[in-house]
Amino acid sequence: MNRVVITGMGIYSCIGKDQAEVRDSLYKGKSGIVMDPERKAFGYRSALTGAIERPNLKGLLDRRARLTMPEQAEFAYVSTVEALAQARIDPDYIERTDIGLLFGNDSTARAVIESMDVIREKKDTMLVGSGSVFQTMNSTVNMNLATIFKLRGVNFSVSAACASGSHAIGLGYMFIKNGMQDCVICGGAQEVNKYAMGNFDGIATFSMRENEPEKASRPFDRDRDGLVPSGGAATVILESLGSAQRRGATILGEVLGYGFSSNGAHISNPTVEGPVRSLQIALKDAGMQPGDIPYINAHATSTPAGDASEAKALYEVFGASNPYISSTKSMTGHECWMAGASEIVYSMLMMQHGFIAPNINLENPDEDAARLNIADRTINKDFNIFLSNSFGFGGTNSSLIVRKWEGK
Amino acid sequence: MDIKEIIQTTNAFLIEEFEADPAKIAPEANLKSTLELDSLDYIDLVVVIENNFGFKVNPEDFQSIITFQDFYDYVARCLKQKELV
């Protein structure tokens, strides 16, 4: 079995467009949430969202490449460029090596809707143009990035609702651990537009605290009233230890454990038992005890039921060891398909820079959260291991354990 | 729309949307090789023609369009037919 290490990271999110900006936002507890009037006019109950602009790729990518990219592929391109640069993986190395690509993505709503609008209006499918079909498939991020970077290894998208990005990293870890790939570019991407989240808003999942956007996402707080949708993209370069050492790459961390489970219950209501099993499988895979984990990046999205359920699961497994816990969704909102990957990047940045980012807006922990050690402010603390949780509709759960690389 | 306007409009969208090098656009130049068109690009030519000139192209018509001048003349013919209809 190979050991699996992280040699590069990239991030494009509502709290920063690269690692340095994001690190500063995490440390300062800065929110990226705004009110979007366009959503209100469109019929949203809640117009709150993470604010992120589309990158301008003209001049960086040719017309043919840009035509086939919806916004989540553009976000993923930017985060992947940053990650490849940090990993010092260049086109020559890519040409000589079968590098894989596993990205989490579970919608491409804007591209589908806008293309169907054109066909309805023009009554001619050809007038939708040549880029549309490649934008509208759920594997759009993979097909675009694999083409742009000329990747030749494993190549498919992972759709697992709000755990997509986490499972993508978990699968990349398994491919490398089992010796089937030496290097896999993993990540998650999430479109941010009014078409992508309307039906999610329609089931009363979003916070209604529109008068205080930065206070709307408040995981574990007694007065939380729903999540805030957000997005962007995050990339994590996974590599076998042997490959990283042969290349002389700077090793940032090691993936030690991947846990997964399915609740086998309700399509949207969470359970305690499902996440508990995911946590236990991750610990077993890493050969660790709960007391070995000093920090947990919680999935907690700021919904009343979800946070309470996760708090119970965390208490059941970690109640005795009482690690620090925070949900970075308090600042970013819920980055959905991207969240499982971005929260690995956020936790890695904290671990590299010796702090635990705050769970902002935690003013009054509810009964379940009060039993946990939730960081309600920035904690300056060196730590060397973290666990990151991600859960999704349909009862899919994923837990990843990562250790700081300290030379062996 | 006279031929001068057709040429101006065509060159403008080829430069803007197809990223054509203005210096390489000439009446006698080969359209496909100058713009490095592949099969998908011809679909986008159908779209920009519809958007800019208001008529739907039969994709097979591209087989007889070799040069930029052929393209301008084709648009002019189609616009004239459209007026007659």
Automatic annotation (TrEMBL), chain A:
Pfam families per UniProt: ketoacyl-synt, Ketoacyl-synt_C
Keywords tagged on the record: Acyltransferase, Cytoplasm, Fatty acid biosynthesis, Fatty acid metabolism, Lipid biosynthesis, Lipid metabolism, Transferase
Organism of provenance: Chitinophaga rupis
SMART domains: PKS_KS
Record-given protein name: 3-oxoacyl-[acyl-carrier-protein] synthase 1
EC number: 2.3.1.41
Gene3D superfamilies attached to this UniProt entry: 3.40.47.10
Family designation: Belongs to the thiolase-like superfamily. Beta-ketoacyl-ACP synthases family.
Enzymatic reactions: (3Z)-decenoyl-[ACP] + malonyl-[ACP] + H(+) = 3-oxo-(5Z)-dodecenoyl-[ACP] + holo-[ACP] + CO2; a fatty acyl-[ACP] + malonyl-[ACP] + H(+) = a 3-oxoacyl-[ACP] + holo-[ACP] + CO2
Coiled-coil boundaries: none
Subcellular location: Cytoplasm
SUPFAM superfamilies (UniProt xref): Thiolase-like (SSF53901)
UniProtKB/TrEMBL annotation, chain B:
Location of the Carrier domain: 1-79
Pfam families in the cross-refs: PP-binding
Keywords noted in UniProt: Phosphopantetheine, Phosphoprotein
A GO term for molecular function: acyl binding
PROSITE patterns: CARRIER
Domain of life: Bacteria
Keyword Phosphoprotein tagged: yes
NCBIfam families: PRK05350.1 (NF003757)
PANTHER family with a match to the protein in the record: ACYL CARRIER PROTEIN (PTHR20863), CARRIER DOMAIN-CONTAINING PROTEIN (PTHR20863:SF76)
Name of the protein: Acyl carrier protein
Organism taxonomic ancestry: Bacteria, Pseudomonadati, Bacteroidota, Chitinophagia, Chitinophagales
